[in-house]
Every structure is written in structure tokens, then in C-alpha cells.
Specification:
binds FE2/S2 (inorganic) cluster; alpha+beta; about 30% helix; 5 helices; globular; about 160 residues; 6 strands; six-stranded mixed β-sheet
Length: about 160
């Protein structure tokens, strides 16, 4: 990573399998860079305060609220956004179990579920509930989302 002047940085990210180079301000969040510089608008700016999870992406296998991560912290990292998922079991499960909600919260829910499945493919019900706490929808009860995750994982 090279720094030009006080506030501009050049960084390299591996986004959805593609090497990307961007020039950013040092205070830019990963969410802003993904949306405004790379055109990846699947991660949503909900609260931009770390509360809602609408901005969730996967950084080096960890679900990350991208509104809370400085883009410079992601230099050299592997970043997966909702646009990087294709025909995954959890996407199909969301369709099959009617877990889709609004366009704001659904990408974040799918990304946290994907990270859970990758990290804990046999997670218990308690673990699923714990992970889903990171994301908020005030419109429904999460039952269909839990069923979608359950249909993909085997329990520990
Ligand atoms: S927009 Fe990042 S947690 Fe709400
Ligand atoms: S926030 Fe998306 S359906 Fe409630």
C-alpha cells in the first residue's frame, strides 16, 4: 500500500476473486469503497453504526460489518460480497424457505449465513441464533431465515 499526501491511499483488494486496485481516502470505510468505487451495491448502508448488519461482507472468512471497517484495514484481504455468491446452497435455501425479506436486510443476512456455513457447517441451533443476532430486521421474526440455515447445515 502506498500513501500519497496526507489522505489518499492506494490499496489492493481481492474482491469476489478479482484483484482490484483503488485510490481511497484514509478515512473511507470498506462499505463506501465497495459501493462507490467498485460499484458493488449489494452491501447496504443501513445504520452505518454497526447495529443492523445490512452492510455485512466476508473478509478472509469472517463476517464483517463493512461500515465499521476502514478500507485500509482490508488491504490485501480477500473480500466476498453478495455479488460474489452464485448458486450457493444458502441462496437456494432462502428461496425455498421464503426467507427473502427486503432488499436492504437480505444481502447482509445471506452473507452472515454464508460465513456461518463456511466456518461452522454443523452449527447447533444456539450457534445459529447467536450468529443471526448480528443482523436486524424489525419487520419479521427470523423464523424463515433460521429454517433456511437449518436446511443447509447439519447440527453439531
Ligand atoms: S450499515 Fe453497517 S451495521 Fe448497519
Ligand atoms: S429490514 Fe428488511 S424486511 Fe425488515
Amino acid at each position: 500500500m502506498s500513501t500519497q499526501g496526507f489522505a489518499k491511499c492506494e490499496l489492493e483488494l481481492l474482491v469476489n476473486g478479482m484483484r482490484r486496485h483503488v485510490t481511497i481516502r484514509s478515512a473511507d470505510t470498506l462499505l463506501r469503497v465497495l459501493r462507490e468505487q467498485l460499484g458493488l451495491t449489494g452491501a447496504k448502508a443501513g445504520c452505518e453504526n454497526g447495529d443492523c448488519g445490512a452492510c455485512t461482507v466476508i473478509v478472509n472468512k469472517e463476517p464483517i460489518k463493512s461500515c465499521l471497517m476502514l478500507a485500509v484495514e482490508a488491504h490485501g484481504c480477500k473480500v466476498t460480497t453478495i455479488e460474489g455468491l452464485s448458486d450457493t446452497p444458502i441462496q437456494q435455501a432462502f428461496i425455498d424457505k421464503f426467507a427473502f425479506q427486503c432488499g436492504f436486510c437480505t444481502p447482509g443476512f445471506i452473507m452472515v449465513c454464508q460465513a456461518l456455513i463456511e466456518q461452522r457447517p454443523h452449527a447447533s441451533e444456539a450457534v445459529v441464533q447467536e450468529w443471526l443476532r448480528s443482523n436486524i430486521c424489525r419487520c419479521t421474526c427470523y423464523q424463515e431465515i433460521r429454517e433456511a440455515v437449518r436446511s443447509v447445515i447439519g447440527h453439531e
